[in-house]
Amino acid sequence: MGRALVLNASYEPLCVVPARRAVVLVLSGKADSVHDSDQELHSERLAVIVPSVIRLRYYVRVPFHRAAALSRRAVFHRDDFRCQYCGGDAESIDHVVPRSRGGDHAWENVVAACRRCNAGKGDRLLSETSMDLPRRPVAPRELSWVVVAVSQVPEHWEPYLVPARKQPA
Ligand SMILES: [Zn+2]
């Protein structure tokens, strides 16, 4: 079974859960399916259509805009699996300002890199090398956690993700 996108009562995307969890939320009356998948879940007595997008019946307060969690996988996704120095295949994470030189482990200071560039740069600052960083690393868009949670965002999720992105703060 796949995964389901969970929307807040306000239709704001909240998280991604295993489809089985989405079925439980719907059956227990905590959420409604707003988009069904083509899968069914069979138990002894009933067959349930597995939802692909559900909307909670209650509003979950999100106290602050969550920053996407910084992980190797998330950085690779942001950087299109390309070494940000030479464009080769990403194999590792490089701290632009090395940690040994006071660099932060933060979105703005990490890039995907191939082993060769990473090793070649070592503990040096970019200015001490002849290497180039054409694209300045930035924290990804707030909703990139959706992309990280599923390897491919289903097409019918897009309408629920796009408006939220455009909503004024
Ligand atoms: Zn490289």
- Associated small molecules: zinc ion
Low-confidence stretches: 163-169
Q: Terminal Cα separation, in Å?
A: 35 Å
Proportion of β residues?
15-25%
Number of helices: 5
Radius of gyration: 20 Å
Order of helices and strands: EEHEEHEEHHH
Largest sheet: 4 strands, mixed
Mean pLDDT: 86
Tell me the helix content: 10-25%
| Secondary structure tally: strands | 6
Class inferred from helices and paired strands: alpha+beta
User: What oligomeric state is this?
Assistant: single chain
Which word captures the global form?
elongated
The main sheet orders its strands as: 2-1-4-3
Describe the protein in words.
- The structure is a single chain.
- The protein has 169 residues and is α+β, with helices and mostly antiparallel strands.
- It is 22% helix and 24% strand.
- It has helices spanning 19-27, 72-78, 115-121, 144-149, 158-166, and strands spanning 3-7, 13-18, 31-42, 47-56, 92-95, 110-113.
- It has a 4-stranded mixed beta sheet.
- The longest helix is centred in the N-terminal third of the chain and has 9 residues, at 19-27.
- The structure holds zinc ion.
- Zinc ion binds at residues 83, 85-86, 88, 113-114, 116-117.
- Zinc ion (ZN) binds at residues 83, 85-86, 88, 113-114, 116-117.
